[in-house]
Amino acid sequence: MDNFAKQAPPDGVNIPPAARRARLAGLLRGLPGIGSDLADFLESPGLRGASWAEDDFAWTVIPVASRLYTYRPEPPPDAPAALFMAKTPAVGDLAYELLGLAAQKALEPNLATFALLDIDTYHKAALLTLCPFIDYLVVAKPTASLTLFQSAFWHEGTPPGPWAERLRTLDRVLLMETLERLDIRLRDLAERTASPALFDVPDLERPKLWKTLSDAGLEPDRWFVTLHVRQNAYRPLPGGIAHRSIEHLERYEALVHHIIDHQGGQVVLLGDPGMRFPPTLERPGVVPLYRHADSFLAQMLALSACRYMVNTESGPNILGLGYDVPMAMTNYVSLLPIEWAEHHLFLTKRMALGSQWVCDREALDIGLLRRVPDKEVIKLFRRGVIRLDERDASELIAAADWMHRRTAGLKTGKPRPSLFNPDAPPIGQKRQARPTDYRFLGDALAAEKTDKGVAMPTVRSLPDPLAWQAIGEAHQRLVICATQSSGSKMLCNMLKASGVAGAPEEHLYWWIREKTSLQEAVENGTQDGVFGVKVMASYVSMLSRRLGEIGVPCTGGDPFFSIFQNSAWIYLLRRDSLRQAISRFTNRISRAKDIDLYDFSSKDRAVTFDHPTIYAIIHFELDLERLFWDLWFRRHGIAPVVLVYEDICREPALIEQAMVRLGLPATTLPAPETRLESSPLNDWFHDLYRAVEALKDTPPATPAAARAALEATLEAPPRDLPADLIARDLEAAAANLMDHKRRWASPQRPWSFFMADFVPALAELMAWAQTPSRS
Length: 775
Hints:
42% of the residues lie in helices and 11% in strands. The two termini are 45 Å apart.
């Protein structure tokens, strides 16, 4: 990692020009095993004036594993052979692709592996010295092109030796794979062995490398941690936000002091001499290996032998994965597909879309955090549409403490044996299945075990792709736009009873949830030639996607709008956000537990008060849903008739007036079926929430004091609720008040089934609204 910026070629250049090539050759000569051959190859003259090859063309084959590892002899000449070809922009990308090759070699140990790679930086060459699974390196210049096959098949003698014959008789070619396919290959291998370490450190080099570590200040007889932090100076992004880089190094500074002073370990700082760390890290226990030029192999030895690693989103995390090192992967904005890795812990950056910040599992559930990096989401990070913030030092320390507990029984202090080393555990049949979900900090601290996660339902294609055309055939269409628990059920019942507004209900919701066919949805919503439907903000984007999948035109960039653009629109709001959030909270839990909210005789009766969840519904779900509708109406030029729940409950004639404005026949509606949506339980939660809000800035010191303060703030307990239920809720509210520092800004999991579609759609609307032409 010696100053990547100086060694990486400019964009569009694979092999450097003469001066740069000479410098690279000088660096490569210091590599064990293969360095001299690579340097000689770069400095040697290539072909000139050949009609079949570009000037300076040359190629050669260099043995790798047999020169670097005493336990890896050259494969016999008649061994089945495979050529692996890869070209990647960075070392981390190449490392991940090489792990796929290693998995193939581990499952087919008799396979002779040839790797055709562009060696355009020192670190790509150095990475090959960690690969006991590469038997031969194939290199060509000026680029690793198909010309070498023309040379091997039709121009023998370039280069001399048996290599041309080996390339002509290859059994197969292995190509680069996507992250998803690599994940399947690595998971399969991990399930067959107890320790799936794939990289290694050349055994003959280890004494010299240990001396380098000792000279840098490491005490080999004590355990240590490795730390790599991607700093802002590395590959800065002109005119944008370097979303993977770290700005607040002082938070990692506090982490280093904690590992040394409280855990009793040492910290080896990985990186390159261009990095800068705070001067307070000039202290015993800190090993600044990043300062040492040409220390790549020493850093890899430290990585392979450390107790655990703390890293940020950069290439060294792949190397840690290749050494099967337990890792605390901090301040990530995307995830590697490595849920199966048992000893890893994720902390993502905080992300904000609107007013509410989320991280970790909540960010994954709503679609801000992707299992594989998503270019469109990354653009939103870089443009600042999705805002980012780094995790606090206290959270980094909590992660390190969890790693310290998790690794208490692991042997450290010497490199983990690679699967290709005879000392490694053998590869057998599939053993115990690996985890199927990521472990985030909150999961780990809550349960100290792998979180099972929530499987996201998938939607299959339905057999009625032309049914949507029946919507357009309706004489008139009425769309009720709403948010959950806003009183839309009452409004729809009144409209249906009018006999002139269709039968509005969430018919399309049941279609995307595969509870009904689209044809049935259309039939259920149509009455006297009017098709009525209710749609919630949380699933508009999923509905649009599903309509697009069955061939609905994409007018205005939105299939949902394409169908309903000439419809009558009603937008229903609820003025009291707190009561709406409480209603949503109690209804959601009662449905999940099959509880009757008004039956207080049941064993589990009702729902326990939870301030953080109600807070999250108000400031996350409701805020974003309302923002979505506002922007969606603006983008499509829709001016809906706006109704407010509290108003129509008191004055139903407002609905009749709205129907006339929308061109529906005048009619007299029946009285509302319900009064303002409330219940003794909802009223009690309302009072409790306001009491906690009044006290949260100066929380009491003890649970007893917290409960006493709540009771003093509340006017009087409700008479309609049992005393034990009131006591239970007071205890829960007191716990919320005492626990506010950890949970205040940490919303519970929202409506995760839809969020993977909703959040990117809202981000796209926000980006649209921020363009200069919309100002």
